[in-house]
Amino acid sequence: MKITNVDVVLEERPGFSPSFVWRKNLPGSDGSSTGAWLVIETDAGITGFASAPRGVIFKDYVDRRFRSEFIGQDPLMREYLWERVWELDRIERFAPNMTHVFDVALWDIGAKAANLPVYKLLGGYRDSLPAYASTVTYSSIEEFLDIADQALALGYPAIKLHAFGDAKKDALLGEKLRAHVGDDVPLMYDGSAGFDLEDAVYLGNALYDSGFAWYEEPMREFSITAYKWLGQRVKIPLLLGEVTDGAHMSAGDFAATGVATSLRTSTFLRGGFTGAMRIAHLADAYHLRAEVHGMGLESAHLCMAIKNTTYYESLIWGNPMKREALVDAQGNVHGPKGPGVGYETIWAQSGVPKGLEKYVK
Ligand SMILES: [Mg+2]
Fold it and tell me: Which cofactor does it need (predicted)?
């Protein structure tokens, strides 16, 4: 099989409302933005798709670097092409949230060629997994408690907070939420790098006292040493490695130094399905968990293929909040049907994104 065409179709996308704030004194996550769909056509009549953020920048990468690299290549040679992206990265220093896009489209092609959903081509491990409700930043502790009630009523068995980014206020939220939902609901906390070491220690100890299951990325992940010092001062499990560059090549140090209780893995920040599975297997070598980051079909496939993972991250927003379409009334996500990633099954209901019509069979 050979790649015959590489196209990029820009798409306007809404943001989250309310947004993710993550820390004091910052505006938080995007409003609406321009994303992109990558399209890879082949001489076998199979077309692969993948979604990219920051569409204008991604299109520039494709126009200057990727198109000429990929046309004429065998799309089933995913390992080779994954390494080529990292070679080009040395020249370009791609945004870490864009190194995965080609890999996802190549797995879409490979799984379609095998007439399988991606997770079965990766090596399926399960067919369903519980989802946790992963919140945006609501306005007050009272609103968070109301949202927790809504999430539990909709079937979600566990809740993760993206809170105010204020160590004292977030500690109080954790305490109030635990008292509100009782001892049996698993709670997690995602700091999204909002803190320095002193505040991260304070909040980590408070969340431990409130029985939180994990403490995710409280500081920027530039310094393993800073995390080592944090680990010496808190007892709460640390889930790390969501945003470091270099996929398994950086995740390795979080595991080998003993800093991370569990590693983060994802398609969209960790090098696609190929990078995500490398991280999962690396973690498994040390009997660590590799928790899948982020929602959507790609994450659902990873959740079905990775043995050492425990939850699917289902982002919730709005008030009243809605249950994500991929999650059922019991709070479980299921193996996407495919073939491939299965974007076409979603588009059959929601409509094909504008500009992709000619590529969707
Ligand atoms: Mg996170």
Answer: Mg(2+)
| 79 and 152 belong to one structural domain | no
Residue 322 alpha carbon to ligand 1 centre in Å: 20
Indicate whether 318 and 222 sit together in one domain.
yes
Domain of residue 270, residue span = 120-336
pLDDT band of 33, cuts 50, 70, 90: very high
Q: Which helix (H) or strand (E) holds 38?
A: strand 33-42
Q: Residue 209 phi/psi, 5° resolution?
A: -65, -30
* Residue given tokens 């399926």 in the structure block: 124
**150 and 210 share one domain:** yes
Separation of CA 190 and ligand 1 centre (Å)? 5
Interacting residues of 174 by C-beta distance below 8 A, sequence separation 6+: 161, 163, 187, 189, 206, 207, 210, 212
pLDDT in tens, 249-274: 999 999 999 999 999 999 999 999 99
Q: Indicate whether 297 pLDDT > 80.
A: yes
Verdict on whether the full-model pTM lies above 0.90: yes
Task: With beta carbons less than 8 A apart as the criterion, state whether 211 and 236 touch.
Answer: no
How far does the centroid of ligand 1 lie from the alpha carbon of residue 91, in Å?
28
Q: Say whether both 32 and 129 belong to one domain.
A: no
In terms of domains, do 145 and 290 share one? yes
State how many domains the chain has: 2
Instruction: State the distance from the centre of ligand 1 to the C-alpha of 329, rounded, in angstroms.
Output: 24
